[in-house]
Amino acid sequence: MTTNLLEVRVARKTVEAVDICGLELVACDGQPLPAFTAGSHVDVHLPNGLVRQYSIHNDPSERHCYRIAVLLDAASRGGSRAVHEMVQQGDLLRISMPRNLFPLAANIRHSLLLSGGIGITPILSMARQLSAIQADFEMHYCTRSRERTAFLAEIQASAFANQVRFHHDDAQAIDLAAVLAEPSPDRHLYFCGPKGFMDAVQKTAELQGWAPENVHFEFFSAAPVKQADDGAFDVHLARSCRVVRVPATQSVTQALAEAGVMIETSCEQGVCGTCLTRVLEGEPEHRDMFLSPGEQARNDCFMPCCSRARSATLVLDL
Ligand code: FES
């Protein structure tokens, strides 16, 4: 369940690149929308009942609309297909208030922005904000080809065009080792993109000596995490003194929902952090991409939408 929903209208639906459409969302009452900061996303409630997170890519100083862009995912579980095929200009949608799990750090000498594919959306908003405050930054935008590069003309015509390098896999792919060659305490790295891109940037940044506290990233989707050897386990709800069995075929949130215990969810992929739940005893098997490795190692919270248990029982603060 999500509270504080905004009613918006799709003022424009655009084609931004091959398989990428853009939506411009405005308030139904014509009023300014709530303010957002670079890196924010909104949960969009789609006509088929699914809820998906999309980053807002316009300039955070703009209040008249939120602009989002959606890649048609060949392996769509229904979200991106619904945006591409069901949502039309003029439609009314419900969205959450903007939330930022990927903010820019304050007062940094230099920001290095890297995006892969549709991961451009939060990164573009960051570039717009940094440019507006005349902060020093450099942006690298990697895509498969020019035709698949959303906002190409818009970026080329922007005030920060000369701070952006485009890299296309079919022409000149990015040399990550060179781009990430100069870590320094007053430089911060931000990146977003598909899993292969994220893994490559993360690994190269580590090899090049970037300090973890200077590295910020956001996954926009997660690979399916179900595994053939998933087993059943029990969750003990400490506050209500109930025990719920989680079968191999269900997530913790699904099993709890069947037992009448609702946990707020959004992405259901371990990406957004909405379902974060405290663990009082037992050892979770973390499958999310929201918690850092250090946070996962503490085993005092987990993401019940995707994570499971290594121990026979997990005691939850529910
Ligand atoms: Fe997004 Fe669980 S619902 S992390």
Question: Can you summarize this structure?
Answer:
The protein has 318 residues and is an alpha/beta fold. Strands 1, 2, 3, 4, 5, 6 and 7 form a seven-stranded antiparallel β-sheet that branches. Strands 10-9-8-11-12 form a five-stranded parallel β-sheet, sandwiched between helices. Strands 14-13-19-15-17 form a five-stranded mixed β-sheet.
Which secondary-structure class do the elements indicate? alpha/beta
- Global outline: globular
Ranges where pLDDT stays below 50 over 5 or more residues in a row are none
Number of helices: 7
Radius of gyration over alpha carbons? 20 Å
CATH superfamily of the largest domain: Nucleotide-binding domain of ferredoxin-NADP reductase (FNR) module
Mean pLDDT: 92
How would you describe what is shown here?
There is one protein chain. The chain is of the alpha/beta class. It has 3 domains: 90 residues, Beta Barrel (Elongation Factor Tu (Ef-tu), domain 3); 110 residues, Nucleotide-binding domain of ferredoxin-NADP reductase (FNR) module (Rossmann fold, 3-Layer(aba) Sandwich), CATH 3.40.50.80; 84 residues, Ubiquitin-like (UB roll), CATH 3.10.20.30. The chain is built from 7 helices and 19 strands. The strands form 4 sheets. Strands 1, 2, 3, 4, 5, 6 and 7 form a 7-stranded antiparallel sheet that branches. A 5-stranded parallel sheet has the order 10-9-8-11-12, sandwiched between helices. A hairpin with a 5-residue loop joins strand 3 and strand 4. The radius of gyration is 20 Å and the shape is globular. The two termini are 16 Å apart. 37% of the residues are buried. The mean pLDDT is 92. The chain binds FE2/S2 (inorganic) cluster (FES). The site of FE2/S2 (inorganic) cluster (FES) has 14 residues, from loops.
